[in-house]
Amino acid sequence: MARTKKLTQSDVRQRAGTAREHLQVALERKEYIDGQIGPSAEAQVCASNAISAGIAAADAICGAVLGERANDQDHTAAADLLAAVQPNGPALAKLLRRLLTDKSQLQYGGYCTAAVARKMTGHAEVLVGAMKGFGIRS
């Protein structure tokens, strides 16, 4: 069983703010790489921030609904916990898993393509946008 950490409403707001900031950076980099095809540092930064945004959004949602977030080295525990959130938890968890699939490569490996970065940013936008449906404000 994954370890969890209790979150206060203040913690939830902090994680939500972090999610929004990471998404903002991803969106700025996404705009910068518009029209590009190949791998680049900018695309990698876009994808990396999208992943961080998704993780922080999942933490905020779980904290708001369940009162806790995953606190495990394996980020898939965050997706498992998110899947328990109703409504839409399973669909949101699926998006988070997509972000996490290539996390190590995209955050610590070689450059990714603009297409991958755009896809990752789209997943992050849905996760961050979902916070509003759970009454989360930063």
Total beta strand runs: 4
Number of helices: 6
- Structural class computed from helices and strand pairing: mainly alpha
What count of structural domains? 1
The percent range for helix content is: 55-70%
Distance between the termini: 30 Å
CATH class (first level) name: Mainly Alpha
Uncertain spans: none
Brief overview, please?
The chain is mainly α. The protein contains 6 helices and 4 strands; from the N terminus they run βαβαβαααβα.
Give a description of the structure.
The protein has 138 residues and is mainly α. Helices cover 70% and strands 7% of the residues. It has six helices and four strands, in the order βαβαβαααβα. α2 (41-66) runs parallel beside α6 (114-133), α3 (76-82) packs antiparallel against α4 and α4 (89-101) packs antiparallel against α6.
Question: How do the strands and helices of this protein lay out in sequence?
Answer:
Elements: E1 4-6, H1 9-32, E2 39-40, H2 41-66, E3 68-70, H3 76-82, H4 89-101, H5 103-108, E4 112-113, H6 114-133
Antiparallel strand pairs: 1-3, 2-4
Helix pairs in contact: 1-2, 1-6, 2-3, 2-4, 2-6, 3-4, 4-6
